[in-house]
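[step 3/7] fold_predict: job queued, chain A
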Amino acid sequence: MKFELGRCLLNERLIEAGMNIDELAQLLFYKPERITDFIDKKRIMPLKIAISIADTIGCNVNALYELISIELS
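[step 4/7] structure written:
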């Protein structure tokens, strides 16, 4: 099965973690604009960054995006 990325769920995960964009950016040494670009889907998180973000906010990497399954025929 193949998956495509849907909506970015990072903002929802930040709310659940009780954290804001600035706090996450500071912890990971990123500019807040970069985090905002991920949330607005202007940029797709590279796997290495997604793992760091998920670890920092305490969620699974798969929880950072809606996953849309594509049936291959």
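[step 5/7] annotate
The first helix runs from residue 10 to 17.
The chain has a mean pLDDT of 96.
exit 0
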